[in-house]
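Dear Dr. L.,

I hope this message finds you well. Following up on our conversation about the binding site, I have prepared a predicted three-dimensional model of the protein together with 5-phosphoarabinonic acid. For your records, I am including the exact sequence and ligand specification that went into the calculation, followed by the structure tokens. Please feel free to forward this to your student if that is useful.
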Amino acid sequence: MAIRLDVSGMLRQAVPTGPDAAALDALAPQLVAAVASFESRRSAGVLGFRELEAQAAERARVLDWAASARRGLDDVIVLGIGGSALGAVCLRTALLPRDWNARSSEQREGRPRLHVLDNVDPRSVAGLLDLVDLARSRVLVVSKSGSTAETMAQYLLVRDRLAKAGLTAREHLAFITDPEKGALRKLAAAEGIPTFDVPANVGGRFSVLSPVGTVPAALLGLDVQGLVDGAIAMRDRCTSSALRENPALAYAALQWHANESAGQGAHVLMPYSDALRDLGPWFVQLWAESLGKRRADGQHVGPTPIAAVGATDQHAQVQLFMEGPRDKTVTFVDVESHPDDLPIPHGDGAPADLAYLRGHTFGELLRAECRATAAALARGGRPTMTLRVSQVDAWHVGGLFMFFELATIYAAGLYGIDPLDQPGVELGKQLTYYQFGHPEWQGMREVWEALPASDPNWVL
Ligand code: PA5
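The resulting structure of the complex is given below.
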């Protein structure tokens, strides 16, 4: 069981833009400062995502409740958006067989399907609610703030459908929200709905190992303890201010350095694994919403994360990575063992042109392609890293979540911004509230009316 980060492809020995030994030494004061900024956040108590021991009692409550709540369930539906949704999608893809929801109950060994409704497109909302039998479903309303418009609209619809079907909210809903604040918390108390706490010091995009991820995982019978153990093992490897001893710091520092010193601010994450394909969107949200900020000195900073999947994207985005602007770094995730690996058949009568495939497996082909793409990028002077993961299971997935969360906090120290807020999304939310007549936001009228209107002469 191991997750190893190979950063050689980021260094001067591999690519002309990478730091050499002297440049790495020169980074030391900034690394020390990034670790100090991490430590001051930790001691201020705002990095609750890493305090997994403190969440043990709530986790035990989740497991206990799920053991009985999952009986007789066909469907678990997550209503949530952003950090309240992407972790559950990633867990489903990583830890359940492919196309889980398309499998029969027998193939699922009686475990439920998992749907994540992370948009308010009526096509998806109606499509899903028409598909499932609410009488055999548990709907998880996931919102840290307990007030997000998209999730609340979905909740109102489900509540209405439950009432119309004569089903009780307490048996078919569960809330995952802040321990004290927000509309869901109030409703939970009033209506006796099972409710699990997202610790006050854990924000949405850092919440996958809180009940936001563990409630759906437990209802699906996934290895919650394995996730947590893997995350703790990674956390405990990532404390030093020495680059070689702290993989999360090394990732953060080299990505930041590439951005600052070589204009390589597009950070691609490319797992060579279908099981890890939804790690990409989860990482994109974490890296983008945490690091894309206006700094106190007025500078706009932050990388642009990009999700790709190997080998699929070798036939889509890799051309851009190889020959497009030199503004990218690519991080591969190479899975060393595929327990369900398949030999590539090459019996009598197979075309001679395809003989090179003989004696190999699909897993070997995937890994060979990963190595080949990394080598080709390096040859073109493009910086890469590789995360080597022994296999895809709960322990390693927990470790990957923790790795990227810690890296995000270190990167924030280097960029000089607050990774835990998201002021840039507020104005859009307020203008939505204004349009819907929300009484608290009618003061936005002036802003709304001062916006440049669409010019009919330029509507083509
Ligand atoms: O990462 C974040 O904080 C956000 O993306 C939130 O997860 C998202 O806005 C949903 O918020 P909430 O969980 O409060 O409904």
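In brief: The first strand starts at residue 3 and ends at 6.

With kind regards,
A. P.
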